[in-house]
Fold this sequence. Notes:
With 438 residues, this protein is of the alpha/beta class. Helices cover 48% and strands 10% of the residues.
Amino acid sequence: MTIEQEHAAPAAAATTGPGRDRQTSIYRQGVLGRRPVVPTDFATLERAARAASSAEAWAYVAGGAGEGRTMRNNRRAFDRWVTVPRMAHGHTTRDLSTTVVNTRLTSPLLLAPVGAGALMGADSDLQIARAAAATGVPYIFSNQGCNPMEDSAAAMGATPKWVQLYWSTDEALVDSILHRAEAIGAEAVVVTLDTTILGWRPQDLNLGSLPFAKGLGIAQYTSDPRFREIVAERIKRAVKQDVEVTLGAVRTLLQMSRNHPGRFLDNLRSPEPRASVETFLDIYSNPGLSWDHLATLRDRTRLPVVLKGILHPDDARRAFDLGVDAIVVSNHGGRQVDNAVASLDALIDIRAAIGRGPTVLLDSGIRTGADVFTALALGADAVLLGRPHMYGLAIAGQRGVEEVVRNVVAELDLTMALSGARSIAEIDERFVRPNPSF
């Protein structure tokens, strides 16, 4: 090697990765006069989704508990931290892959379970599942989904899928959901702890709108053999009681058959759907859920167990003492308790209490790739994306979900590139500091 060769500047290397690829795709389409169907910033995404949604859909998906203070707390928590990029690091590629709960992820992102998704688009769970498969991002099937988990699993193919569990008052139904999750090849079960009863949600209440009361979001139940047994038992009891119907009621039905034959037929056909709804409302979640219930999981399923809804360090310790595989630090997107602690703030406290070893995921408040970077720096192993992917669904169905996912992953990749992080494993508290403006 000559002296000139030894001291020559290194050849420039092209930066590659999902961020650059996404930018290039959008800008090339822009040359042809085509703009993204799904906005790339959250504020515009939210406005577009609201315009595409019914009042009932928007109240349910975008609404929060009480005065919405928990949702605001979630966002302010992210604003209290700033990223500190490092320069001249010389890296041209990043490794966004990671592993959580024995699930290999191409990026530290999973799609959160959101109930009653059909409010935002027909066959919502299937569209989300297909988008997850197209982008390689795991999807956590909602226990309150609008398509059976078996159908969603078929749409996912080999892409990892997890299953959410709401703990019913019927223990046999809990077992049935667990067995079905195993049968479809789920890689984990996510037990949601913070919705043993619904929080006070004024947006829904002001409209008198609960999707489950209309039969939306109960497909995991109506497709379940144990649930159908419970409904059949209820119908039998109701039929027995109706044997003693009064002569006046019979006359009313006969009159309806003459004046409104369609409505009469509807009454004849309605018992099972109505009984399904009423049964769901009675048993879908157990207000008395306790640590004793959770301690039985190891004997009831071979799947890794994730507990979702942890906010207090003592609960985190207890979860891991119980032998769970991971927790999700979450306040349910601000939908359950008004003015609850922000999930990001809770994450910091929990990591201080349990150390870096146990697997901890985060949801509630994640909007952008930069948010993902902050969450990882402060101790999350991966994050769950909720409202943003639902907004994509409202705007453009499966394609909308795909574009939201690609945008979030692209921004994460670019944030890593511009900050000097070569891999997810490298992202830690060295990259952030408290915002001096707060």
